[in-house]
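Researcher: Next entry in the queue.
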Amino acid sequence: MAYQAGGQRSAPRPAPESPEAQAYLQDYATLLESVPFPSVVFDRRWDVVLSNVAFETLFGAVGPHPTAMPGDNFLRFVLFHPDAGTVLGDHESSWCLPMLAHFAEAVERHGQDGGLQSIRRDIAQEPLMEAAYRQGLPHWIRAVGPDAVEHDGSVRPLLHPDPRWGRTDCRVVDETPKSLRDMGYTRMTLVLRETRRPAGPPRRAHRPRRTAAHLRVV
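Model: Structure for this entry, 218 residues:
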């Protein structure tokens, strides 16, 4: 479920007016860089405010896109970038649908926000995504329950470009302190999980015996 969005790039994000808030963000950026896992701070439109090198490395191989780069707007990347599925495993069920659910909640609370309305227009321009948003999403939420929709604590598959990680899982952790929350920001960290290696040499695969109906017999 990745589409070429026709919207415009998000407007530059204004820095906090308060010198104290600006200083806090500068120090928080230093803190972010000390984290070995991909970590990002974004606003209610999912415009990226801060990200660390691990986040940039995770998405470093994706191609250019006029409106949906992961370092600009994370929601647009998940929904609209054609390369999103090369990094975000089980792209539709594990990433698109939960993000659409959070977007729908944001639209309910901040319906007049111009940035959110721009994303909403781009969704409406794609018939499949519009159908997923209007009809499929409510059914999916009822089927999986609210826990599957929630970002914090969920475990989702990733395809990391670093072969030391490769195909792995991450736990999504919301670690937003009060000062960031008061600015309208959210911090999300993707805690990568070590890929399990086989304990010994792989066993030689046995050719399965098949019945006349060509079904495998265990």
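Model: The mean pLDDT is 84.
Researcher: Noted, moving on.
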